[in-house]
């Protein structure tokens, strides 16, 4: 039975309440100051791969959209990450965080040392958006519904517990506090407008669940590789390497 618009939105929000990666133990470690400097660096390296794939995902989506209005609305997402003449972009802000934790930014940008599971999860997200229906692709972006809270908690936790944290190094998260609500307002309305059958609602909900799995898998990989007993897979970044200075 097709749910009402209100009931379907509540269903989507429950997915975040139950499955969003803010509940992962690695995030608890990070936000409470219990990560070592090298664990923070591993997170920065691997999360960069995700940041790198987001505009590729959005470009893949736009290449399939025939409606100019939808392309115009979606285009800002690429600009938010890649940057414009007026906006340096989220990727550059993430590399600034890499500088702050003492990593060689060229190494981070090269995407060497990324864990296999991180790579597989992010690449799967790009393929999902490229190959699934437009409704499923948009619905998968709705983890942004839950992002502002985790960004706010992250800013507070990093500032409280790590010497590298300041307004400059955390500018990525601060900027997303204003960018994400704009994106999610559009995406949520679009999904609610177009998921007008039970089959479409079920597909949209499954797409959002898939995206929470993508985010969770990345933290599982970090926890397995860099939290005792650490098991860094071949090719994964080795602590103490590719540093430009010793971060506090």
UniProtKB/TrEMBL annotation:
Domain of life: Bacteria
Presence of the UniProt keyword Heme in the record: no
GO BP annotation list: pyrroloquinoline quinone biosynthetic process
Name of this chain's protein: Pyrroloquinoline-quinone synthase
Keywords: Oxidoreductase, PQQ biosynthesis
Record-linked Pfam families: TENA_THI-4 (PF03070)
Keyword Electron transport belongs to the record: no
Record pathway: Cofactor biosynthesis; pyrroloquinoline quinone biosynthesis
Reaction(s) this enzyme catalyzes, per UniProt: 6-(2-amino-2-carboxyethyl)-7,8-dioxo-1,2,3,4,7,8-hexahydroquinoline-2,4-dicarboxylate + 3 O2 = pyrroloquinoline quinone + 2 H2O2 + 2 H2O + H(+)
Catalytic EC class: oxidoreductase
Gene name as annotated: pqqC
Family membership: Belongs to the PqqC family.
Domain (Thiaminase-2/PQQC): residue spans on this chain: 10-220
Molecular function GO labels: pyrroloquinoline-quinone synthase activity
EC number(s) given by UniProt: 1.3.3.11
Task of the protein: Ring cyclization and eight-electron oxidation of 3a-(2-amino-2-carboxyethyl)-4,5-dioxo-4,5,6,7,8,9-hexahydroquinoline-7,9-dicarboxylic-acid to PQQ.
Native organism: Thioclava pacifica DSM 10166
InterPro entries per the UniProt record, alphabetical: Haem_Oase-like_multi-hlx, PqqC, PqqC-like, Thiaminase-2/PQQC
